[in-house]
Amino acid sequence: MWRATVLTIFPDMFPGPLGQSLAGKALANGVWALDTRDIRAHATDKHRTVDDTPAGGGPGMVMKADVLARALDAIGDDSRPRLLMSPRGTPLTQARVADLAKGDGVVVLCGRFEGVDERLITGRKLEEVSIGDYVLSGGEIAALVLLDACIRLLPGVMGKEASGAEESFADGLLEYPQYTRPVIFEGAAIPEVLSSGDHGRVAAWRRAEAERLTRARRPDLWTAYQARGKPPKL
Ligand code: SAH
C-alpha cells in the first residue's frame, strides 16, 4: 500500500478533494493510505505555538524548527522521501511524480506563514518541491496537487492502465487534441482521420499534433525533446 503522511496545521483540509472520485475510491479500497498529522500536537506551550517572528526582522512569522522536528521525528524510521512543499523547491515534473508513485509513499510537510526555519530543512534533509512559480498561502494545496498526481498513477486507480502512458508529458510532449461525439459541433467536424479506423494513420496524426502543440506552446519541452534524439517528422 502506498502511504502518504502529511504534516500540517490544517489537518481538516485532508483528504479534501482526494476523498472524491478516483483517489477517494482508491483510498477506500486501500490502494493508498493517508496519515494526517497535526503539527500543533507537537507544540509544548499552552497556546500550542508553531511559529515565531523572523530572526533579523521583517514581516510575517516563521514555523519553528523544534516543533516541526518533533512532528517529523514522531513518524519514526521510514525510507519514504521527506518532502517540503516550497516555492523555492525543485519544480515538480511528471517524471518525479512517476518515481514517487513507484515507491512506498511520501512524507509531506506543509509550510505556512513565511515558511519554515532553514535549520529544519537542512537538519532533517527535506527535499523542497515546488508546484510552480507562484506563491500559495500554504503548502496544503500544493501537497494535494502532488498527492493527486501520484495517486492516479498507482496500479488500479485509473480506469485503463494504459491511460497514463499517452498523456501530456509522458513522452516529453503535450497531448494531442481529443474529440468525442457529436461528430459536428457548432459547424466543426471531428478530424476525418479519427473516424478512418486506420490505427497507423491515427497514431501518426496524433504524434504530429502533439509535436505541433508542444513546439508552439512549450519551446522548453520541445528543445528537451529534440535534444533527447527524437527528431520530429516535419
Ligand atoms: N515566503 C515564502 C513563501 C511562503 S508561502 C517565499 O517567498 O518563498 C507559505 C507556504 O506555502 C510555503 O512554506 C510552502 O509550504 C507553501 N507554498 C507556497 N507556494 C508554493 C509553491 N509554489 N509550491 C509549493 N509550496 C508552496
The string of secondary-structure elements, in order, is EHEEEHEHEHEHEEHH
Major beta sheet, specifics?
A: 5 strands, parallel
Order of adjacent strands in the largest pleated sheet: 2-1-6-5-7
Quaternary state of the chains: single chain
Provide the gyration radius in Å.
22 Å
Mean pLDDT: 95
What ligands are attached or bound here?
Answer: S-adenosyl-L-homocysteine
Form type: elongated
Report the end-to-end length measured between terminal Cα atoms.
45 Å
What structural class do the secondary elements suggest? alpha/beta
Helix content: 25-40%
* Overall number of strands: 9
Helix run count: 7
Q: Strand fraction band?
A: 15-25%
Unreliable spans are none
Tell me what you see in this structure:
With 234 residues, the chain is of the alpha/beta class. 31% of the residues lie in helices and 18% in strands. It contains seven helices and nine strands, in the order βαβββαβαβαβαββαα. It has helices at 21-28, 65-73, 94-102, 118-123, 139-151, 199-217, 219-227; strands at 2-8, 32-38, 51-52, 62-63, 82-91, 105-109, 127-130, 184-185, 188-189. Strands 2-1-6-5-7 form a five-stranded parallel β-sheet. Helix 3 (94-102) packs across helix 5 and helix 6 (199-217) packs across helix 7 (219-227). The longest helix has 19 residues, at 199-217. The chain starts with a strand and ends in a 7-residue tail after the last helix. The model has no long low-confidence stretch (mean pLDDT 95). Residues 85-88, 110-112, 114-115, 130-132, 134-136, 138-139, 142 line the site of S-adenosyl-L-homocysteine.
